[in-house]
Amino acid sequence: MSRPHVVIIGSGFGGLFAAQRLRKTDVDITLIARTTHHLFQPMLYQVATGIVSEGEIAPATRVILRKQRNVQVMLGDVTEIDLKNGTVTSRLLERFTTTPYDKLIIAAGADQSYFGNDHFAEYAPGMKTIDDALELRGRILGAFEQAELSTDPAERERLLTFVVIGAGPTGVELAGQIAEMSDKTLKDAFRNIDATLARVILLDAAPAVLPPFGEKLGKKAAARLEKMGVEIQLGAMVVDLDYDSLTVKEKDGTTRRIESQCKVWSAGVQASPLGKQLAEQSGVELDRAGRVKVGPDLSIPGHPDVFVVGDMMAVDGVPGVAQGAIQGGRYAADAIKAELSKGQTPEQRKPFSYYDKGSMATISRFSAVMQVPIPGTKKKFETEGYFAWLGWLALHLVYLVGFRNRLNTLINWFFAFTTRGRSQLAVTEQQVYARTALGHLSEIEHSSVDDVEGELAKGTATEEKKPETEAG
Ligand SMILES: Cc1cc2nc3c(=O)[nH]c(=O)nc-3n(C[C@H](O)[C@H](O)[C@H](O)COP(=O)(O)OP(=O)(O)OC[C@H]3O[C@@H](n4cnc5c(N)ncnc54)[C@H](O)[C@@H]3O)c2cc1C
């Protein structure tokens, strides 16, 4: 008899930790993901700003799992989940694979949300993938290069104005690093421009910086950023974007334009569209961000063998952070283990409970904010500055996968934080133009499909007419 087959979608925190938790379980696992790597998203901003290389935060999933003999890793974009027949269909180029499952753990994460303005992505990419981070690195450094060549003061100003939209942890980290890069790393590196005069704007429609960290830490983070020269504009909602500028609506309804070529979006998230398929097939509800309202055991109603974890799940009190995904992935794996080894029924499962280990965000080198719950109370220990920053470094090293990655990262950090140097400032043309090129490619694809369909339509019309003519 073959062993139960567990299919896991996603190689992020939820998917990888679920697979590892099933290491000693008598099951066969297929882990399907659309990238070959496990991405450590919390350090993407360091790739974008040249501190670490992409390989350090994105080790190959099949290499991480090579010693775990019960896992098979499969590259593919899951296009369909069929709950009725218990299958998952994935696509790699033109090859479609249908994989049956006995148990399914869906951990496909979330994408950037532009709140219905998806065309903003062309001018203000988000930061969710390695491609995004490398493209951003190209855009940031490319803006400096263009400014060096420009003789028009207005154009130079536009090129040296960097706008980060969204003042959550990612926006704060990115704004801080762009400011630090222009002030320290690129200082004296150009002959016609002074890189230290670059303007970095962090803006948000909300009235506060780092809202999840509370008012006190938010204000401290804002003060630290302002000290570094970052301009903070709150209560400002982006209503339009184009290649050279963005339009912002103030609370009083007035609008203004900011001239800026390099813009970054870190304002919202939207769960994987796979959630919509689950909703259509099972009737499970989705929240406003498209996250699946799972039951207390993280399964979907009527399908106790299908779990949704991580950024895709909507569970009260569980934030969309790495720990939420890790704990969710492990919980689902434990439920499968308990059923197979102890015969536990879905009704006997203890509800998932999230253990909040605290949250952190870096602002610049030597400065971070940290919030840790005090056990047995509803209070939180809060701190900011150097010790919080050291805590951030230590924790992120612990969760980086692979000894070599940790060592390389440590060396790069030492170099970046003790000198003003950054070792990863290489940019390739592909990184800068890839999004535009892919956009053109997809336009060509669509137009040729339209042409073919148009031709077919004409042909069909002619064929349909033919008999008439003949008959006539
Ligand atoms: C820039 C940034 C900074 C962050 N900083 C922090 C931080 O400091 N601390 C913190 O705790 N959290 C942070 N987070 C949040 C944290 O990274 C996420 O909460 C966590 O990664 C969620 O894990 P997940 O497994 O649900 O999804 P992900 O880690 O996003 O993994 C999703 C996986 O699914 C795959 N996938 C998606 N769709 C498909 C499909 N159709 N077919 C096949 N595979 C698919 C993806 O390739 C990926 O492997 C940050 C996130 C970002 C983007």
From TrEMBL:
Instruction: Name the source's superkingdom.
Output: Bacteria
EC number per UniProt: 1.6.5.9
Q: What class of enzyme is it?
A: oxidoreductase
Swiss-Prot/TrEMBL cofactor(s): FAD
Membrane topology of the entry? Single-pass membrane protein
One short Pfam name that applies is Pyr_redox_2
Report the residue ranges that make up the FAD/NAD(P)-binding domain in this protein.
5-329
Q: Which residues cross the membrane?
A: 386-403
Chain intervals for the UniProt region annotation (Disordered): 446-472
**Gene3D superfamilies in UniProt:** 3.50.50.100
Q: Which GO terms describe its molecular function?
A: NADH dehydrogenase (quinone) (non-electrogenic) activity
Q: Which reaction does it catalyse?
A: a menaquinone + NADH + H(+) = a menaquinol + NAD(+); a quinone + NADH + H(+) = a quinol + NAD(+)
Annotated localization: Cell inner membrane
Q: Give the family this protein belongs to, as stated in its UniProt record.
A: Belongs to the NADH dehydrogenase family.
What's the protein name? NADH:ubiquinone reductase (non-electrogenic)
- Organism source for this protein? Gordonia amarae NBRC 15530
